[in-house]
Design a protein that fits this description.
seven-stranded mixed β-sheet; alpha+beta; six-stranded mixed β-sheet; 16 helices; FAD/NAD(P)-binding domain
């Protein structure tokens, strides 16, 4: 029986793993986390998927308690700005498309041909809530969509049925600290020390890590949460890393933590603004913004990128420290090798364009619990783990490449080159189909990767990849029900904008 797990590396990945394993296995599993005091965390303000609520509910944590402690805010979706080079914007929300007479409202929007309002404003309620900076919760704490409220209990990503209407923004360092407190209270042993050596047996399996001040730390299963270094999975075990730089253009980022002067000016969404050599994020936290520029150093230098970022989000604030990050874009060929599992950046990373970092961590942890080993170390189960993790990453890769291929920008060398890059196998056929009709669950990437067909369609339509003709069947159908549904969407949006408090007003209440 596997009795002990040693996690090497802290941060969000390490402490999410430690707290989750303790919640899952309690005292039946010894968990030790070894964290170097010298390693600087990358966390610069984090955006998430709506499915992250499964993680917090699994641990039995109350949003009203943990969110204020982590400088948290709400995320109703992502606002994409300037992806056609014209300053315009659209939203990718956490909201499924409604269906009328067997066709989505997006199909009906194409068929009715009324482009006086954009696709996202016509087809989603969330767009109006974002524009009005509304909280998804009323001042009494209730969710605007009451049927989706309440704890999910000990549920997982596999049990996601309804689309929850929001995710979170939070300070990743504060989340790590908060979860560290939960984990150590529940029995996780925390060692703050440098790993000087990783010992292996004659098979190449890890037996222990040797620390500078605490001696040898032995375990049965080792989890690599050392970030892009991949101390165990890559440096020790020599696992091959498969780069995605052939299809995704960006390899660097620079980030700033920017105080927000007007506390009421708090957006309930992430912003991704296209720049000349990449894109810029804004993640609103309760008292500051996390800002960053993701770029390719083939088209702009780190110094120039920092200068552009400062001019855009913090002019005159040369006192704010910039965090330069060299990103390792791709995934390990296998994230589980021998008795070592890589979770977080040591496993895979595909740039933060759709906030997939925390999702990959959560998915990796859940799959580890699902395929948790015994003394047989069943190779079939290990292969199944690697297969699931790889497919989740590959699906996200395809979805992100779509952003660059479908964007209408081609006005700079960076954007011209993005159009010429290779595409993952299968994506070309999907984009060819998207030129003719909207995608569905049968025609998007076929394995679980966290995104549904509404996301693929929202991005294609928002970016400008619009089918040449509407679905021909709709020309033979009465559009009355569709027109009524569009009217209902607008009326519901107006009612919610009037009823809901601002994002800042609600968060200020729970931060008292």
């Amino acid at each position: 029986m596997i009795r002990s797990v040693v996690i090497v590396g802290g941060g969000t990945a390490g402490w999410m793993t430690a707290s989750y394993l303790k919640a899952a296995f309690d005292d039946r599993l010894d968990v030790t986390l070894v964290e170097s005091p010298q390693v600087r965390r990358i966390g610069v303000g984090e955006a998430t998927f709506s499915t992250v609520r499964h993680f917090f509910d699994y641990l039995g944590l109350d949003e009203a308690d943990w969110l204020p402690k982590c400088a948290g805010g709400y995320k109703l979706g992502i606002r994409f700005e300037n992806w056609a080079g014209d300053g315009e914007h659209f939203y990718h929300p956490f909201e499924r498309l409604r269906v009328v007479d067997g066709f989505s409202v997006a199909d009906w929007w194409l068929a009715l041909g009324d482009r006086s309002e954009s696709f996202d404003r016509s087809c989603f309620i969330t767009t109006a809530l974002c524009e009005a900076k509304r909280s998804p919760r009323l001042l009494d704490g209730s969710l605007f969509s009451s049927g989706l409220d309440g704890s999910l209990g000990r549920s997982t990503l596999d049990e996601q049925r309804a689309q929850f209407p929001y995710a979170y923004h939070f300070d990743a360092d504060k989340v790590a600290e908060y979860l560290a407190g939960i984990a150590t209270k529940n029995g996780v042993r925390h060692i703050v020390d440098d790993v000087k050596h990783v010992a292996q047996d004659e098979r190449g399996w890890i037996t222990h890590v040797r620390t500078a001040g605490h001696g040898d730390v032995a375990g049965d299963l080792f989890v690599d949460c050392t970030g892009f270094r991949g101390l165990l999975i890559n440096q020790t075990l020599g696992t091959a890393f498969e780069s995605f730089e052939d299809v995704l253009p960006n390899n660097r980022a620079v980030a700033l933590r920017v105080p927000r002067d007007e506390a009421t000016d708090m957006n309930p969404y992430t912003t991704a603004r296209a720049m000349n050599a990449g894109w810029m994020w804004t993640i609103p936290l309760f008292r500051r913004n996390g800002n960053g520029y993701v770029y390719s150093d083939r088209f702009i230098s780190p110094e120039e990128a920092e200068r552009e970022l400062r001019q855009a989000v913090a002019p005159g604030r040369d006192d704010l420290e910039a965090n330069h990050i060299r990103m390792r874009i791709g995934r390990n060929r296998d994230s589980w090798v021998n008795n070592c599992v890589a979770i977080g950046l040591s496993s895979a990373f595909v740039e933060p364009l759709e906030s997939t970092g925390i999702f990959f961590i959560q998915h990796g942890i859940e799959q580890l619990v699902r395929y948790f080993p015994d003394e047989r170390w069943d190779p079939v189960s290990i292969a199944a783990y690697n297969d699931r993790v790889a497919h989740a990453v590959e699906g996200v890769k395809e979805f992100l490449v779509l952003h660059y291929k479908s964007a209408r920008r081609d006005d700079t060398p960076y954007w011209k080159e993005a159009k010429l890059r290779a595409m993952p196998e299968g994506l070309r056929a999907r984009l060819d189909l998207a030129d003719s009709r909207l995608l569905d669950e049968e025609t998007i990437y076929p394995r679980y990767h966290g995104f549904e067909s509404y996301s693929w369609n929202a991005m294609n339509l928002g970016l400008g990849r619009i089918p040449r003709t509407p679905a021909p069947a709709l020309a033979h159908m009465d559009p009355a029900n569709a027109r009524a549904e569009f009217a209902r969407i607008k009326a519901e949006a107006d009612e919610l904008v009037a009823a809901l408090p601002s994002c800042h007003e609600y968060l200020a209440k729970i931060n008292d």
